[in-house]
Amino acid sequence: MTYALYYSPGAASMAVHWMLIEAQIPFEARLINIDEGAQHDPEYRRLNPAGRVPTLIVDGVPRHESTALLMLLAERHPAAGLAPAPGSPERAEWLELMVFMANTVLPAMRDWFYAGEDGDPAGAEAVQALARRRIEQSWDRLDALLADGRAYLVGGKLSTADFLAVMLMRWSRNMPRKALAWPHLAVYIGKLRALPSFIELNVREGLSDWSNPAS
Ligand SMILES: N[C@@H](CCC(=O)N[C@@H](CS)C(=O)NCC(=O)O)C(=O)O
């Protein structure tokens, strides 16, 4: 099995990058800096016609969509234990959360950040207002789930749902109400950010603006 990840620091590629590091799956990392417009290069567009990151080359075939990539990697590397096994009691909750993040939180984040580019700039403010409401309602839902003191979202152990959730929570860091403002999310984020794989991920992506304070 061979992998090459096209990533941009802090972008939707981050969850996949984190999983590859945590599971110690060999891969090649290829930088596509979206702040510099590298996603529009014709060469990259051949791999990802939408001009977005991530792209994961899986055994020579370009694959897309961060949530699908996490689920695919979990399926191909079951020994890593990063998703509840099919048929296990936790599987339904994991599926539900992965789909919730993919079809509610990710699109709202896209609207928050790209309303003026993806749509008519004149309507961007209204789009962003709705996106913000959806994002904050999502934090309400995840905060309530974590209120029982669980360290991870599903099944008492680290899973792909945590990679996706923490990446999304990070994106809220400059929003009017950041995920860290929710009490149970703050505890959860603190624990997940302390994982050696998250620290290593930030080093590899050159990120330092959303780390736990040094103790
Ligand atoms: N649903 C996609 C979203 C991908 C996406 O929107 N990526 C953003 C970065 S977070 C991107 O590539 N932006 C560059 C652009 O749209 O020009 C996924 O989860 O992979």
UniProtKB/TrEMBL annotation:
Sequence ranges assigned to domain GST N-terminal in this UniProt record: 1-81
PROSITE patterns tied to this protein: GST_CTER, GST_NTER
A molecular-function term among this protein's GO annotations: transferase activity
Keyword annotations from UniProtKB, A to Z: Transferase
Keyword Transferase appears in the UniProt entry: yes
InterPro entries membership: Glutathione-S-Trfase_C-like (IPR010987), Glutathione-S-Trfase_C_sf (IPR036282), Glutathione_S-Trfase (IPR040079), Glutathione_S-Trfase_N (IPR004045), GST_C (IPR004046), Thioredoxin-like_sf (IPR036249)
Domain of life assignment: Bacteria
A Pfam family assignment: GST_N_2
Domain GST C-terminal, residue spans: 87-215
Protein name (Swiss-Prot/TrEMBL): Glutathione S-transferase
Native source organism of the sequence: Paraburkholderia phenazinium
